[in-house]
Amino acid sequence: MDFNLKDQLNFYTEFKDWYNQIKNDFKFDYQKDCEARDYLSLILSKKNKNWEINNVLKLFKERLLTKSSLLIFGCGPSLEKTIDIIGGKKGANFFKDYIILAADGASILLKKKGIHIDAIFSDLDGITKNELEYARFNIVHAHGDNIRKLWFFEENIIKFKNIIGTTQVDPIQNIINPGGFTDGDRILFFLRTLLSSFHRLFLIGMDFGNIIGKYSKLDMKINQEASPTKLKKLSYALKLIKWLKKMIINPIYFVNSENRISDFVHLSIEEFLNF
Question: What mean pLDDT do residues 103-115 have?
C-alpha cells in the first residue's frame, strides 16, 4: 500500500551481507557511512514542513505508472553513441514515450541533448547543481566519501521539492536503504518493489567493461581505462544486478552494450527501435 512505500523500499536486512562484504573489501568506514547518513537526514529535516518521504515516493510511483517502458542510463562508453544514433533516427521527441532514469553523470548528456529526466540517482560526484534542478525527482545517496558533496549541495537539497535520501547503512526516519552499491545498480534496487507487471526495463550505457565513460566524473573529458578500484566496483555492480534479477519479474534488456552480459537479453539499436 502507498503509505507503506518507505518500508517496502528498505532492503537493508536482505542486503546487509553484501554491504559487509563490500565494506571489508574496499576498507570503507562504517562510522563515516553513518555520519553521512545522519548529515543528509539533518539536511532533509530543514526542508519545508510539507515534505515527507512517503509522499515523494508515492508521486514517484505514480509517475512510473504513466509509461510502460523505462530507459535507465549509465555512464558507460556506449552512452553517447547510443543516444546520438537513437536521436538521429527518431529525434528527441522519441524519448518522451519513456520514463527516463539517469545514473549520476549520465544526466549531464541527457540535459545537453534536451531529453527530459524523470529521476537522477546520484551520490553527487558526477553532476552539477544544474542537473539536480533539471530532473523531476532526485534520489541522493549518502556515504562516507561524499560528505563534502552533501555540504556543497545542501541548499539545493533543501529547496528541491521531490527529493529522496538513501543510505548504505541502517535506514532511519527520513532516509531509506533500497540496497545497491553504485548509482547504476542502485536504480534497479530502488525500482524493485515499485514496478508493475507491464513495465519493461532497457539499460543504456551500462557496459561493465574496462573502459569508463567520460560522464562518470565531472573532470573527465574523454573515455578512459578504468582503474583497478573502478573495475572492482563495476564487478560488484554487475554481480548485484544478476542477484537482483531473480527478484524482478519484469524483462530487462541491455541496449547496444559494448560487452555481452550473460543471463540477459541484448538488443542492438535497431532491435530496440523495432521492439
Answer: 96
